[in-house]
Structure formats: structure tokens, C-alpha cells
């Protein structure tokens, strides 16, 4: 039986590579597009080892409309797209706002134009809990008002969501699901793929694992005077394989034309953990101590945010299954294979 082809932009990235594995294992044929600016080609080798097959991959930039057209033409019969490709570091976006707007908003516009030309009408969009800004109440539901973003990164995700709502409003058969991620962590059980930060990690968990492994001298926790129980930031940490599985469910939902033409879902665990709690959970899960210090708060960081996942459970039929400790243990296993 021929597999349904799904284009995965940023498919060699951290979440993208895990989604490619889950898509293939669910019976789809993923096709990867990635320019390896934020990823490494070794991820493709890992995917191939896990699946035992080579997944088609195109080394192009999603902002390059001619290159993207060529992929659509060459692959033919694409039924849907998962759009991961984007710059994703809150702190970096404060330093390079122009690059973030050009890349994140520009690539979506280019992709939508090519999808329209080729009659591809299903898009799962990689959004973020940053669209909620600093929420008035926790946990956040999909109906929580989006407020002014705390960073250019967050603003690009808000803009992209607005663009998609406008495109759907034109009355075509185009359908989209906006998945608002919380904080993905961990790695595939095989330890063949995981988070591969280039240079100094921008995210907490790779910094924790690199410090535990002795690659980094010390972890800096940015601020301990936030209005939280222990003064450090609170986030909702979701295992990357759980998150990847949510994309498979979302793709199928779009192809089945279930629900409205624009649907929004939080993808998290529904629990918040502070940075200090994560460090302590890592130490419990691995038996390895982490050398850390408290530093100044970072501009753009939201004090606390975690998801209400009722809608994802009830409508998407999706819930996470991996504990914080197990997620951290998988991240450590991945770090050790590096």
C-alpha cells in the first residue's frame, strides 16, 4: 500500500527528526526539507538507523521559493505539511529581531504560496506557548488571551498564527492545526536522535546534561526572585516523543477533515516544574550532581507558564505518557552517546 506523503520542514531538527520517526512508524511517508542552519545531518543517519530506511531529504531553505517549488514538483502527491522550520531561541531573538521576522514569518509565507500552487491543503503549524505572553492566570487554556509577546520570537509565532487564520478565512479547503508547544525535552529511547544544540545551548536541558558531563563548567539559573514557590522560572516540560506523536494525530485529523478549519491545541503535560525542580529531578534520575549558580534574570523570560491540556485530551485524543524523571534520564542517555 502506498504511503501518504507528508512534507516536514525542519525535519532534521530536534522535534522534526522525532516527528519523522513517528510519522513513518504510523504508516506515513515523511519527506524532509532542512537547510541545516539549526540542525546537523547526523540526525538523518539516526533516523535511518531507527527506521531501517532512508527518508527522502532535501537540503534547501524554506525562504527559497524556487527551491521549494522544485521539491513539491519532484515529490508530487504531497498531502500535507508539518512546518517546524524556524529560529527558536527567545534570547537570541532579542539580539537579532530582523533575522527572526525574516526567517520565521517569511518562510511561512513562502510555504503557503507553494502549497496553494500545488493544491496542498493541510498544514500542522509548530507554534509555541510564548504566544500567551505573561498570562494573568495559570494554567493557560487555548482560550487564554494572547498578550503582547515578550520577545520577537514569540511575536513571530503570533504573526504566523494570525496569517494562517486569515488564509483559512478565504473560504478555500485549506485546513490548519496550530500546536502550541510547551518545553520539549528528552530524546528517543534508542539514543540515536536527540537535541543537538550548535555551540552554547540556549535551552535548559542540554545545558544541564553538558554540565553533568563536564563539557560546561557550571549551569547558570537565570534568576531566583520570580513570583514562584522557589523563585525560579516554571515551565511545562513535555517529552519530545510525546510531542512528536501529537503531530501524527494532528496530521490524521486534518486529512480526515475532523473539526474546524483552524484548530488550536496546547501540547504539554499540564504540570509546571521550576528550574530548580528540574535540576533536582535530573540528579535523582541519573545519580549525577549538577554544578549550578544563580545568575541575573534574562530579558524576555516569562516567570511561569504551564498548560491546561483538557482540550488536547478530549478533542485530539492526545495525552503525554512520559514522566519528568524518565524524560531527563533519556536526555542523559543521549548526552552519553554523544
TrEMBL record:
<comment type="similarity">
    <text>Belongs to the NAD(P)-dependent epimerase/dehydratase family.</text>
</comment>
<dbReference type="InterPro" id="IPR001509">
    <property type="entry name" value="Epimerase_deHydtase"/>
</dbReference>
<keyword id="KW-0299">Galactose metabolism</keyword>
<protein>
    <recommendedName>
        <fullName>UDP-glucose 4-epimerase</fullName>
        <ecNumber>5.1.3.2</ecNumber>
    </recommendedName>
</protein>
<keyword id="KW-0520">NAD</keyword>
<comment type="pathway">
    <text>Carbohydrate metabolism; galactose metabolism.</text>
</comment>
<dbReference type="InterPro" id="IPR036291">
    <property type="entry name" value="NAD(P)-bd_dom_sf"/>
</dbReference>
<dbReference type="GO" id="GO:0003978">
    <property type="term" value="F:UDP-glucose 4-epimerase activity"/>
</dbReference>
<feature type="domain" description="NAD-dependent epimerase/dehydratase">
    <location>
        <begin position="6"/>
        <end position="268"/>
    </location>
</feature>
<dbReference type="InterPro" id="IPR005886">
    <property type="entry name" value="UDP_G4E"/>
</dbReference>
<keyword id="KW-0413">Isomerase</keyword>
<dbReference type="Pfam" id="PF01370">
    <property type="entry name" value="Epimerase"/>
</dbReference>
<dbReference type="GO" id="GO:0005829">
    <property type="term" value="C:cytosol"/>
</dbReference>
<comment type="subunit">
    <text>Homodimer.</text>
</comment>
<dbReference type="GO" id="GO:0006012">
    <property type="term" value="P:galactose metabolic process"/>
</dbReference>
<keyword id="KW-0119">Carbohydrate metabolism</keyword>
Amino acid at each position: 500500500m502506498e504511503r501518504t506523503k507528508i512534507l516536514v520542514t525542519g525535519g532534521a531538527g530536534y522535534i522534526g527528526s522525532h516527528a519523522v520517526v513517528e510519522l513513518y512508524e504510523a504508516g506515513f511517508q515523511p519527506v524532509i526539507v532542512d537547510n541545516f542552519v539549526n540542525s546537523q545531518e547526523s540526525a538523518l543517519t539516526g533516523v535511518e538507523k531507527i527506521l531501517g530506511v532512508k527518508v527522502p531529504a532535501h537540503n534547501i531553505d524554506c525562504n527559497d521559493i524556487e527551491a521549494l517549488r522544485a521539491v513539491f514538483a519532484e515529490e508530487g502527491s504531497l498531502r500535507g505539511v508539518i512546518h517546524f522550520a524556524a529560529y527558536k531561541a527567545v534570547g537570541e531573538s532579542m539580539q537579532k529581531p530582523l533575522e527572526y521576522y525574516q526567517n520565521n514569518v517569511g518562510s511561512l509565507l513562502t510555504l503557503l504560496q507553494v502549497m496553494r500552487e500545488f493544491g496542498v491543503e493541510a498544514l500542522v503549524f509548530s507554534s509555541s506557548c510564548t504566544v500567551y505572553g505573561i498570562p494573568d492566570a495559570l494554567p493557560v487554556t487555548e482560550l487564554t488571551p494572547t498578550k503582547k509577546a515578550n520577545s520577537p520570537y514569540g511575536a513571530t509565532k503570533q504573526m504566523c498564527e494570525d496569517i494562517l487564520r486569515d488564509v483559512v478565512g478565504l473560504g478555500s479547503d485549506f485546513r490548519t492545526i496550530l500546536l502550541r508547544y510547551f518545553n520539549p525535552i528528552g530524546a528517543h529511547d534508542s539514543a540515536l536522535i536527540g537535541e543537538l544544540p550548535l555551540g552554547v545551548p540556549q535551552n535548559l536541558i542540554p545545558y544541564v546534561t553538558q554540565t553533568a558531563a563536564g563539557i560546561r563548567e557550571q549551569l547558570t539559573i537565570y534568576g531566583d526572585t520570580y513570583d514562584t514557590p522557589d523563585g525560579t522560572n516554571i515551565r511545562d516540560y513535555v517529552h519530545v516523543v510525546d510531542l512528536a506523536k501529537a503531530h501524527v494525530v494532528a496530521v490524521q485529523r486534518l486529512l480526515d477533515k475532523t473539526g474546524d478549519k483552524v484548530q488550536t491545541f496546547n501540547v504539554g503535560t499540564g504540570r509546571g516544574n521550576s528550574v530548580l525542580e528540574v535540576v533536582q529531578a535530573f540528579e535523582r534520575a541519573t545519580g549525577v550532581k549538577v554544578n549550578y549558580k544563580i545568575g541575573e534574570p534574562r530579558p524576555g523570560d516569562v516567570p511561569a507558564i504551564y498548560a491546561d491540556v483538557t482540550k488536547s485530551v478530549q478533542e485530539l485524543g492526545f495525552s503525554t505518557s512520559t514522566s519528568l524523571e524518565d524524560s531527563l534520564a533519556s536526555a542523559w542517555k543521549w548526552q552519553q552517546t554523544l
